[in-house]
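The methods section describes the discrete structure representation at length, but only in general terms. An entry of this sort, consisting of the sequence and the corresponding backbone structure tokens, reads as follows.
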Amino acid sequence: MNSNLPDDWSPADNPYSIALSESSWLRATVALTVARMHGDDVQVGWFSSRQIDARTLVVALRQLLAAVKLERIALTDLGMDPAVITALDNAEQVFLDALPNIKHVRDGLTHFEDWARGNGGGPQADARKTTDPRDVARDFWSFGYDPTTDTVTMGPFTLSVSAAVPAANALCDAIYAATRAVDQRSTAELRDQVVQALTDATIPCTPPPEDPVRVSQGQDMRIWLSFELGRLPDGQHKELAERVATAVAHAGLRLTSSAFPEAQDISDRLLAGEPLRVERNGP
């Protein structure tokens, strides 16, 4: 765990970001395992490294769908534009089209205690309607990677290993796009909140060069507040800086310095010409 996180931090505050983080780990896992499967085989005890990696690959691919599920839940809870959710849904379907048997292959691995007896769910449950469980178990058994065809199989189900990396990359890109849409909306809302707070305090903040106070969005998706020093009225510098700091604080926001994170002299930092980051108070 990151020791720099505040004590009151919780992943429940931003589950859409957790989905992105987990998908990034899984994307790397898929790339690593496929590269090793396509490389030299290594004996690990009695086992082939390719067969070991095949198991890891299947689980990672299936977990990407869990990341999509979390992202979708978060997007829905946040009331995001339905188009954002639809784009994610479409990307998930493309992933499933490329790897149509991923769920069954993963289930056979992770629920081997049921599948080995023919008592698994899904396709095994359907097969039990007409077939003895012992025969069902046999028909849906035998996991393995075949390097000659570059496929992973679990009973009658097959996965293309060569399709894994592009499918994972495309799905992770879709999760990233959805996450960025959330951040863009949040950034726009924060900017509007800052502008409204300054406007309510009769502090002009239209885009430069008209007014001395500038509120802008950076490439980092953060909102920054700064002074156009050449536009500040003589003798009113300190007063304006204090009014800005007060207006921002009354709106439940705070100004922080990137260069001096612990700085308390916010007004002085503005007067020095330093752009300050605008943040919301609390989670």
Remarks:
- The chain has two domains: 11-180, 201-280.
